[in-house]
Specification:
With about 500 residues, the protein is an alpha/beta fold. The protein folds into three domains: about 90 residues, no CATH class; about 230 residues, 2-Layer Sandwich (Endonuclease, Chain A); about 160 residues, Endonuclease, Chain A. About 50% of the residues lie in helices and about 15% in strands. It is built from 20 helices and 17 strands. The strands form three sheets. Strands 9-16-15-14-10-11-12-17 form an eight-stranded mixed β-sheet, with helices on both faces. β10, α14 and β11 form a beta-alpha-beta unit. α2 crosses α3, α3 crosses α5 and α7 packs antiparallel against α8. The longest helix is centred in the first third of the chain and has 26 residues. It is globular, with a radius of gyration of 23 Å.
Length: about 500
């Protein structure tokens, strides 16, 4: 009986039940009217056609359009309701206006040094073009004078992370998709509370949907009581206009303007294997120390200003405010963000640029492999022109349905010569690309529709830094404990499995 009461009082269950009842109510009304009034049926069908016509003329991925078109025209009442709820975020419009206001207030705060651009262009004009794209379409300038460090598993990353948090003297900014109570978060929280008590400016953003099962409702209030400035991104409310699409999937920590962390790690015990969920959890992270941290600082403060309605004096947080010496140079570093309101799929375009310009190899870690036509063709074409294309996905999935969908893309890739592996010890959550011993990206961006088109994301693009070789070494080491997939594996799947995969491919953009 206690378990039953715990279940029905669970936040997720309550929200899901309320949403389901609201959906049934609207669908029921629709079908009730549809059965009795022929005019209502005509109106619904005209509305469905109008929505589809508007949809197909929007700037978005063709697969996404096709899926919604199929749903709306096949089931007009349910399709229209789902599209209103999930198809296009109302938050994006509101957020966009406030975001634009913040940009106008702060002005041209991110500027690139001419000497940094000139140095990269002289070394490699083609790679400089990749970097120019990020500068111009993600408002993310290029930097030198930044040290990079790559961490192949969460345990190693966390050790460095705690070490740097303890050094903080002026401010700590954190932005995470998932925070879960346990050893990892308790360790971090103890440091944050202690630092806040000493006057360090500690600010935290967490995604409320991402933390719906891991934190109590309005958890930000308990942190505020401890002296931590805290805000929940996109708070979950049990109403039918709940926006599920636009989530803050970023993982960012900035310390005193000169130190930053990002990568796949959330602040939960499974990420450092303190808790086992899907075998061994392999994740990766990147550490920055230097001028490039400024991009992450601005990224955080922009979101903070929008969701708290508080203007910030960005100039107070520049890298050299609390670091007087010139930073060590370690190649070229470019942290960048991707937002879902600008009709520019920055995360995907960064990946496509790397794939299309690779000469010798491109190695990829991704937990989810849900490809649109552009990425599929780019990977296959790279392999067909002689590039060594290899991809590692999980051996033990966190989401079985999504994993089944991931495996549905294997056959076409294998036929083109791409080599695919599954990480045998467990779940691989890393998101990284490395190519030709020169370029690498480590960040939060998965190869799936939600990550590429709907979420707030971030990453670090690097050229000839120490971390580039570290990412490559980690990839090659990981192959030794991963099983290679063959075409026979794909061809020998049972008929029900292949049927399920075909259905999943049809609705892939919605998953």
């Amino acid at each position: 009986m206690k378990k039953f009461f715990r279940l029905i009082s669970n936040r997720v269950v309550l929200v899901a039940v309320v949403l389901f009842l609201q959906l049934l109510w609207f669908v029921g009304i629709g079908y009730f009217l549809n059965d009795r009034y022929i005019y209502f049926d005509v109106i619904i069908n005209i509305l469905a056609i109008a929505v589809v016509l508007k949809l197909v003329n929007q700037r978005m991925n063709p697969s996404y359009k096709l899926t919604w078109t199929l749903v709306i025209l096949s089931f007009p009442i349910i399709g229209l309701i789902l599209y209103v709820v999930m198809g296009k975020s109302r938050l994006a419009k509101k957020f966009y206006l406030e975001y634009e206001r913040v940009l106008n207030v702060q002005g041209d705060i991110l500027k690139e040094k001419e000497e940094d651009r000139t140095a990269l262009k002289e070394l490699n004009p083609l790679v400089s073009g990749q970097s120019v794209y990020l500068r111009d379409y993600s408002d993310s300038p290029l930097y030198q004078n930044t040290i990079t460090g790559y961490y192949r598993v969460g345990e190693d990353w966390f050790e460095k992370y705690i070490e740097e948090l303890k050094k903080a003297e002026h401010y700590i900014f954190l932005e995470y998709f998932i925070i879960a109570e346990g050893y990892m978060w308790d360790t971090v929280l103890e440091i944050l509370v202690e630092k806040a008590s000493r006057g360090v400016d500690v600010r935290l953003i967490y995604d409320d949907f991402g933390c719906i099962t891991t934190l109590p409702p309005r958890y930000y209030k308990s942190l505020q009581a401890k002296g931590i400035k805290c805000a929940a991104f996109n708070p979950v409310r049990p109403v039918l206009n709940l926006i599920l699409n636009n989530r803050d999937h970023r993982k960012i920590t900035v310390i005193d303007g000169h130190t930053a962390f990002t990568g796949g790690m959330n602040l939960a015990d499974e990420y450092i294997n303190q808790k086992e969920r899907f075998g061994h959890w392999k994740d990766s992270g990147i550490y920055l120390y230097g001028e490039a941290v400024w991009n992450f600082t601005v990224m955080f403060l922009r979101i903070w200003s929008v969701i708290t309605n508080m203007d910030c004096e960005f100039e107070y947080f520049r890298p050299y405010n609390y670091h007087l010496d010139v930073f060590e140079n370690d190649g070229f570093v470019q942290p960048y963000g991707d937002i879902p309101m600008d009709n520019e799929t920055v995360g995907e375009h960064v990946y496509l640029n790397i794939i299309s310009q690779s000469k010798d190899y491109v190695y990829i870690f991704t937990p989810y492999l849900i490809l649109d036509n552009e990425t599929m063709k780019a990977l296959c074409l790279a392999s067909k022109r002689g590039v060594d294309v290899r991809i590692v996905t999980p051996g033990i999935p966190d989401k079985k349905v999504v994993f089944l969908l991931t495996q549905s893309y294997y056959a076409e890739l294998l036929e083109a010569g791409v080599r695919i592996y599954q990480y045998s010890p467990g779940f691989l959550h890393s998101k990284s690309f490395v190519s030709d011993d020169e370029v690498a990206v480590v960040g939060t961006i998965n190869l799936d529709y939600r990550s590429l088109y709907l979420h707030f994301e971030c990453g670090v693009w690097m050229y000839r830094t120490r971390a580039v070789s570290q990412v490559k070494k980690d990839f090659l080491d990981t192959l030794e404990v991963s099983g290679e997939i063959t075409l026979d594996f794909c061809k020998n799947r049972s008929l029900p499995v292949r049927g399920a995969q075909s259905i999943l491919r049809l609705i892939a953009p919605l998953l």
